[in-house]
Automatic annotation (TrEMBL):
Signal peptide: none annotated. PROSITE patterns: PECTINESTERASE_2 (PS00503). GO terms for molecular function: pectinesterase activity. It catalyses: [(1->4)-alpha-D-galacturonosyl methyl ester](n) + n H2O = [(1->4)-alpha-D-galacturonosyl](n) + n methanol + n H(+). The keyword Hydrolase applies. Residues 127-170, 177-408 form the Pectinesterase catalytic domain. Residues 102-116 have a biased composition (Low complexity). This is Pectinesterase. GO terms for biological process: cell wall modification; pectin catabolic process. It comes from Zingiber officinale. Keywords: Aspartyl esterase, Hydrolase.
């Protein structure tokens, strides 16, 4: 990882300077993660072996997933209908007529960020410094991470000075082994309240290396501002819980923003890069693959005011042979995925149909793909696939920072 090579100047958030605020509703943490982890374990075990022990473990995980889904459905019914069991029923989603009544809030507007701060309080001194010159506490970022206290109750701040740090970073739990794509990340974060600013996370595996994650986030109430994520397939793994990405730059090729978190991408630049050298290696390039697996999960991706475009190399290849380079806003990785684009610019390479099926008609009747206020040469509601729609104007506020991830409760602010 390294510092951005070009400035992304705009007023900063109040990151790393204030205590972490706790959200009022802890149920959100339950329904955003409890089904995700058993399914991840089950998916990873498919590639281990065909022994009886593995088969028994997979069967137990399926039973656990079913029980968890039932519990989430009951919690959702209790929240919506109260204790009268006669009113309870299967969980509904936006796709079959259910819209939560959000608290009063204005619809998200491109370039606006009402709950986000406009001026920072005094900077908080770092707990550890890292640089290549030997004048800091540590020479390597992993050394500083290893020295940080486990399960600390306060924020631990690293100041990483300018330079390129070619490392694979994670604060590992004891005896935690590698698990497929999940463990391919150059940088992985787990502790609640992770915040980063003015960094670049990069996985240098080439476009032919399949899944290669640059950054994986399992941090609840994480905030990343003015951060670059560089890779090819599966660049950014927004795995679970509440996440905010503000004015970041995310580049990749295939499914390069994926996971099952509840994440808002506010004014982030989404940039497609060539899949491989030469137009003969072109293909279909979906941006997002959300992994919502249960209709009662309050997860999804919301892109607000984000330009969707291509790098100079990608656009040059696209213009030479447009039919070989097909860019889509997303495809259905899991059955109940939720992906929303609000007030986003769609570049010329975005296909008229907008969205790509995964396999046949999988998830087409249960997914939630929506747009509102799209503009640019790749934005034409009339040409979109029939299984996605525009968001009704009266419901756009549901996908604001305040309502979708309760950002006004936990995003750092002046004290």
């Amino acid at each position: 990882m390294h510092w951005p090579s070009r400035s992304l100047s705009s007023p900063p958030l109040r990151l790393l300077r204030c205590p972490l605020r706790q959200p009022r509703h802890r149920r959100a943490r339950l329904d955003r993660r409890c089904s995700t982890l058993p399914v991840d374990c089950w998916s990873a075990l498919k590639y281990v072996n065909s022994s009886r022990r593995v088969a028994d473990a997979m069967a137990a995980l399926l039973d656990l997933t079913t029980l968890t889904s039932n519990a989430l459905s009951k919690i959702a019914a209790l929240q919506r209908c109260g204790p009268d069991l006669s009113l309870w029923g299967p969980p509904q989603t936006e796709s079959n007529g259910y819209w939560s009544d959000p608290p009063a809030a204005s619809a998200p507007q491109s370039g606006s960020s009402a709950p986000l701060p406009s001026s920072p309080p005094p900077a908080r001194p770092p707990n550890a410094t890292v640089c290549k010159t030997g004048s800091c506490d540590y020479l390597a970022v992993q050394e500083a991470v290893d020295a940080a206290p486990d399960l600390g109750s306060d924020r631990f701040v690293f100041h990483i000075k300018a330079g390129v740090y070619e490392e694979t970073l994670a604060k590992r739990r004891p005896n935690q082994g590698a698990v497929a794509t999940y463990d391919s990340a150059s940088v992985a974060v787990l502790g609640d309240g992770f915040a980063a600013r003015d960094l670049t996370f990069e996985n240098k595996a080439g476009p032919s290396s399949h899944q290669a994650v640059a950054f994986r986030c399992d941090s609840d109430r994480s905030v990343l501002e003015l951060v670059e994520f560089r890779g090819h397939q599966n660049t950014l793994y927004a795995h679970s819980l509440l996440q905010l990405y503000c004015r970041c730059r995310i580049s990749g090729t295939l499914d390069f923003i994926f996971g099952n978190s509840a994440a808002v991408f506010d004014r982030c630049s989404i940039e497609v890069v060539p899949r491989a050298e030469g137009p003969a290696k072109a293909g279909s390039n979906p941006v997002a693959a959300h992994g919502r697996i249960d209709p009662a999960q309050a997860t999804g991706f919301v892109f607000n005011g984000c330009p969707i475009n291509g790098s100079a190399d990608y656009l040059a290849a696209y213009r030479r042979k447009p039919g070989a380079h097909r860019e889509y806003l997303g495809r259905p990785w899991k059955e109940y995925l939720r992906t929303v684009y609000v007030n986003c610019y769609m570049g010329e390479m975005v296909m008229p149909e907008g969205w790509l099926p995964w396999k046949g008609d999988f998830a087409l009747s249960t997914l939630f793909y929506r747009e509102y206020g799209s503009r640019g040469p790749g934005a034409n509601p009339a040409t979109r696939v029939k299984w996605r729609f525009q968001i009704p104007e009266e419901h756009v506020a549901f996908y604001s920072l305040e309502n979708f991830i309760q950002g006004d409760e936990w995003v750092p602010s002046e004290q």
